[in-house]
Design brief:
With about 200 residues, the protein is mostly beta strands. The protein is built from 2 helices and 12 strands, in the order H-E-E-E-E-E-E-E-E-E-H-E-E-E. Strand 4 and strand 5 form a beta hairpin.
């Protein structure tokens, strides 16, 4: 076997592995009319007669439907009231002398649940306060929370894009945040945007 045949064989094996490991996702509805639905932790592809042609437990295509090779439905949040979106839920390392920054989007109320082994401080700041903080100058803040189990709602951002969050710690540790945002647009300016 020469090197070109060996290379071709290795590339084919790599492609098969990537498809199997779901790094490459092939849309089976590209060439036939079918639906792809993910519900109850099951991945189901049906043909036009609603007969199941593929059934797999995989996290891909979660809460979407593909018809005739085109995306037709996507679940993006609880639309029966106000949609809620997860913004930050990845465990993150924080070290003394540094800080973590998180966004507070305009037209949303945020809910932050944060758990850590040792206490942390969470500041909610407007953009001017953050500039002072980031330059190491004297700074103020809108709200301050301290502890190892912090949970709060902040809704002054429902009509204002002027806020950010900062987290500091006196020890090196992993924090476990769960920041969600609920779409709640105000019909007037709120918070620091009122001035």
């Amino acid at each position: 076997m020469n090197y070109s045949n060996l290379l071709f064989f290795v590339v084919i094996l790599l492609i098969i592995y990537l498809i199997y490991a779901h790094f490459i996702i092939i849309n089976p509805c590209k060439f036939i009319s079918c639906s792809v639905i993910y519900s109850n932790n099951k991945f189901i592809i049906t043909d036009p007669l609603n007969q199941i042609i593929i059934y797999n437990e995989t996290p891909y295509y979660k809460n979407i439907t593909i018809v005739d090779g085109h995306l037709s439905k996507v679940y993006i949040g609880n639309l029966n009231g106000y949609p809620e979106f997860s913004i930050w839920n990845v465990p993150t390392l924080i070290q003394p002398g540094s800080y973590l920054f998180f966004t507070i989007p305009d037209t949303f109320a945020i809910h932050l649940n944060l758990h850590s082994e040792y206490p942390v401080t969470v500041y909610i700041m407007d953009s001017n306060q953050y500039v002072q903080f980031s330059k190491g100058l004297n700074y103020s803040y809108q709200n301050k929370y301290f502890g190892s189990n912090i949970s709060f709602w902040f809704n002054e951002s429902e009509g204002c894009a002027g806020y950010v969050g900062v987290i500091t710690s006196d020890v090196s540790q992993i924090i476990n945040p769960n920041e969600t945002a609920v779409y709640m647009p105000a019909n007037h300016s709120t918070g620091v945007c009122q001035t």
